[in-house]
Amino acid sequence: MTSADSRQPDLSAAVQAALQRGDRQGALGLVREAERAAPQDKALKMQRAMVCRAVGDLDGALDALDEALAIDPYEFVALLSKGALLERTAGERAAATAYRNALIVAPLEEELPPALRAPTARAREVVARTREALEAHLKARTDAVKTEVSHATRRRFDESLGIFSGRTKVYVQEPLLLNYPRLPAIPFYDRSLFPWFEDLEAATDMIRGELEVALEAAKGDFAPYIAYPKGTPVNQWGELNHSPRWSSLHLWRDGVRQDEACRICPKTAALLETLPLSDQPGYAPTAMFSALDARTHIPAHTGSTNVRLLCHLPLILPGPARFRVGNETREWKMGQAWVFDDTIEHEAWNDADELRVILIIDVWNPFIDEGEKALVRALLAARKEFYES
User: Fold this and answer.
1) Going from the N-terminus, what domains does the chain have, and what CATH number goes with each?
2) Chain center to CA of 120
């Protein structure tokens, strides 16, 4: 403990005694004297702020807090106190920035001292209310311009407005394996980039029929999709690890055709072979029936590489089922496929009371040319060779 720290209880008691006597200048003088002996002690700056606030000198209190924050910009109590003072002197909008900075460095809720819980809750209220007011203002000022642009442009702009106001976060590509540079971070890709959608969607009934056969004939082959070995950190997958609530039957797995599953679903396998599957030996393609149990949630996660995208085709939809990629959430609809970038954080919900099944297919990112595909294959093969040698 430093000498300044050891003086704090005595100083605090003396300051409080002076304030109780009505000796405001004496209380302030005691703190100033201690500061001269320890000019870099942020606790003394904060004590001066307390004294100034107690005597009604709010500007002086703000100056003292700014001096404390110059020593330690991440001091939670100083930031929280500054927000409260700004709220009193200049209103919620002026306070919102200080409150927002305080919340960034705030302890976990269960670790907050009781005396700080109400002020922290107030900070959250002010930040949320200011954010909502800002977003409403921005929308009101831009709505007239939005009538002149396309639906796709409006949707993209609305996401930017949500990010700009602070309501939503920025989602970026976070590949677990290979991050290929200069590829756009698009949550759901435009259908026009995949002319084969028409053939795939037209085959929905046929694929579903073969799926139903597989559900009967090869039900035991549907294995838990999440299967971490014992001793491996499971992170968000604790509930689904080795659970049949999310299971799959692979037609292709890590680039290898699963002959028995393809034998049960021959027409589906034949159709898949006509599609631009992302062929990366040892890694891709993967094509599978993904079965999600009733009232089950797949938590947020990201995929392996942005050189390939994932295509979903719903096959069994007993009720509402949602899927989020980044800031965009959609509901699956029978007969309608979509392609998304799974290196952007995504999650899924089966809100229905029965099993939901979709077909998932790895396809090449349309912004990768043939030369790059060859290079990516060679790159991944070299990696596999390195670790297996």
Assistant:
1) 3-130 (1.25.40.10), 191-388 (2.60.120.330)
2) 23
